[in-house]
Structures are given as structure tokens and as C-alpha cells.
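Quick start: what a row looks like.
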Amino acid sequence: MARCCLILGDQLSTNLSALKGLEPEDAVVMTEVWSEASYVKHHKQKIALIFSAMRHFAADLRESGREVIYTELTDSENSQSLTSEVQRIQLGHQFDAWCVTEPGEWRLKEEFELLASRLPVPFEICPEERFICSHDEFNEFLAGRKQPRMEHFYRRIRQSTGLLMDGKDPVGGQWNFDHDNRKALDQRETPSPPTWPVDVITEEVFELVNTHFSDHFGELDKRSFRWPVTREQALEMFDHFIEERLESFGDFQDAMILGKDTLFHSLISTSLNLGLLSPLEICVAAENAYRDGAAPINAVEGFIRQIIGWREYVRGLYWAYMPEYKDRNTLNASWPLPSFYWDETKTDMVCLSEAIRNTRQNAYAHHIQRLMVTGNFALIAGCSVDAVCEWYLSVYADAYEWVELPNTLGMALFADDGVMASKPYCSSGKYIDRMSNYCKSCRYRVKEVTTEDACPFNYLYWDFLHTHRVRFQSNPRMAMILKNIDRFGDEKLEAIKAQAAAFRARVTQNGGDARTLFKERSP
């Protein structure tokens, strides 16, 4: 009985559940299809990363003796969708059965369930075992809770895995060291991440992507592309983080500095989400660095919380609340996403320009740039939830809907009415000024609210809070902030509302361009 295993582009692991049951005579199918590369206009680097990693993984499988049927994007017989490729290959090879590991996105799960009902042979969807928490375990966590909270989930996973635990107690006597991880960067040097020569496989993929996806966002060349495309490269990137970055990661994980695109961040999210690394192996390695005295507890705990806390948590929420979750828009946000999200030269706001420049050049921005700059602006400006979610899914090399949607719709935009976050992650320009050096070179004045030169984050922030005050006033975490509106007085509040309305009108009239002409400032 000859079986065939379909491997998706984000399942590049030999530990896949669908692979484990294969016999030596069974085959593997991998295929590059237009439908997956273009259902949103993915960043060129993201497409190149996935195609190159797929081709390298297929080569490794063949070297191990496995038969691999691989369809490249430009193959003349390519039907350009995953399900139609399965049907086409089945006609040609007459396999007795198919299997696939559960896909990460809801839309693919629906497509595969429909395919299973139409294929003339069994098509098994095997459980995804590369995450620490299963769907059943997450649903058990949700049971009986009015509102799920990541901190409770995180502690549960710490206890079940034993990570950073001394018996029943957390290492260091507390679960969370986040208060130690909010320092602005000092003058220290930041390490450069490892790079690798672009091999023949990746070079061919570059040419393919630049030819067939030339109208997609982002840069793609040997200078800008830094992502691991094999497990060996992914391990090298992670080892570099442990040895060169982890010690300072905690202190400065929220910092933002002009021209420093990666600071002390790990740069392994693409490798994790492709399957080149596993969450448990990297958490164990980080814990070992702490126990060996190579990294402080606040850095190691903060890193592990990102993996077994946020990453596992957002995946659990995604599968628990989909497909209805995707349609939520609690704050009725509908303002068109400004065009400067695709072209950083169309805004005078240095923080936004810098985050979007990094995104365009590198298909990357770290979590504070995503949450408290691009996400914060989209929230307080009232940008369309659908448009913002599509942007985040499109532009980042590590973005897949299971991780992007809860982080964007829930955490950044508060569009799920508090399922993901206990309060909106919004701020004025004051937070950005505290955590970066962006404001020092910005055309706008971060300490002003209603003047012509005032930072747009300031008046948009207060206008946002005023607009949604009735909704937020029952939230205990918002009470103190909302009281500040009462101190403004009617005149200042009207000036704030007028500034916000004028900003939106100007950007709309300029086709999404946020630049404006100012008279020369006095010193």
C-alpha cells in the first residue's frame, strides 16, 4: 500500500505527525502554488524565504532516501492550488491514501476537509504536534473562564513543562520580570546577526520572486535577505542569540533606535513558524543559559514568555475562536489605511517612517515597533480592521494568520472586545519618546498636543479615548487615564477633536499621504 504525505510550506520539520507513519516506499509531495503566494500580496522576502526553505527541505528528504514529488511554481503542469495539486498528482500516481499534518490556518483546514470528501482514497488530517499546548488542552484552559488571560495560561505551561521552575515555585521567586525589561538603549554596541552566502537554490528563488511577484511590497536582494533557510542556519542564528544577544535582550527588548533594526532580538520567529526550530528546544537552551550563569533571569524569563506564553497563547485563541473571530470589529474602526504604510516617505512621523522602512527593507520589525508604533497608530486613528490585518499578514516574513490575527485584531486593535488583551494597547507620543530616540529628529513636537506642530500620536490618542470613553469607563485599568480627560476642559478637548479630524481629513484628501508643509520652526 503506497501512501503519500503532503507537506506544507510552514511544516519543514522531520517531526511532523504525518511523516512519522510513513514507510520507506511512501512518498512526499511538496508544491509551490500561486494561490498560497498571492492570497495576500506577501512581502517578496517572505515568498522567497518559504520557497527556498521548501526546496532545501525537499533536498534533505531526498538525501535521506525519501521519494519527493516537488512541483515548482513555474512547472507547466502546476494547477496552482494545494487541493488541485493533490488531485492532479493522485491521478498520475494512484496512491492508496494521503495524509497531511493539520494546517496552521483555518481556511486551509476547511479546504482540506472538503478535499477529503471528494478524493477517491482516504485523506487523513493528522494532529499538529509541534506546539506545546494541544487544542484540547487549550479548550480545557478556557473552560469556565469569563475572559482568558495570557498570564494564567503562561503559568500553567511553565508548571506543565517545568521550564524555569524550582519544584512548584518559579525560579527567582516570581513568574514575571517584565518590569525589568523596559529600559531605553544606552550607548552600547549591538551585535550583527550571522549571514550566509546565497546558494544556488536561493538565488534561483530570488529570480523567480522578482520576476513573478515584482508588484509585491518589499526589497529582495542578497544584501537585504538575512533569513535562515535550513535547520542548520536556524540553529546558527539561535546560537548567536544565546551567546551574543540574550544577556541584554531582557533589558532592551522594548527599545527602539534609529538605524538599529534588530537590537538584541532573537530573529528566530521565521524559523519557528516554518518548523526549522521547535519551541521546547529553544526554551530549554535559554533556561540552560540562565542556570549556567550566562544570562540573567529577566532576559531568559522574558524570552521564554514570548515562546510558551504569547506564541502558544495566540495559537490557542485563534483555533478556539475562529472562524467568527476574524469578523470582529468592536470599535467599528473603518478609516482607510494610509498609503504611508506601504511607503515610509509619505509620513513626517519618524517613528512610523522608521518602522515601515525596516519592514520594507527586511520584512521585519520587532514587537514594540509592530505593537506600539504601527499598531498603536492604526488603533487610535481608527483604521479599518480588515485592512490592518491584511497589511500585517502581508509584510512580515514570520506572519501566518494563526499568529498574526490575534496579535493584530485582538492585541493591537482591541477589536475583539478584550478577549486577547485586558485593555487597549494605546499611547500618546510620550511612550515612544521614552523608549526610543525617534522624537529627537522628528518634525513634530512630542510634548505638544494642540499646536500646529503637535505630534499626531498625542491628539489622536486623546481623541480615541474620548470617542470610546463610555465603552472603556467600566475597565478598571482605564479609569485613571480617562480621568485625565476631565482635567482638559472643554476648550482643550474641542481643540484635540478638531486636530484629529483635520489630520484624518488631510491624509484622506492627500490619498493617504501624511506629509504636510509647516512654516520653519523657531529654535
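That is the whole record. The chain has three domains: 3-126, 135-213+228-321, 339-509. Strands lie at 3-6, 27-31, 67-71, 97-101, 123-126, 165-166, 169-170.
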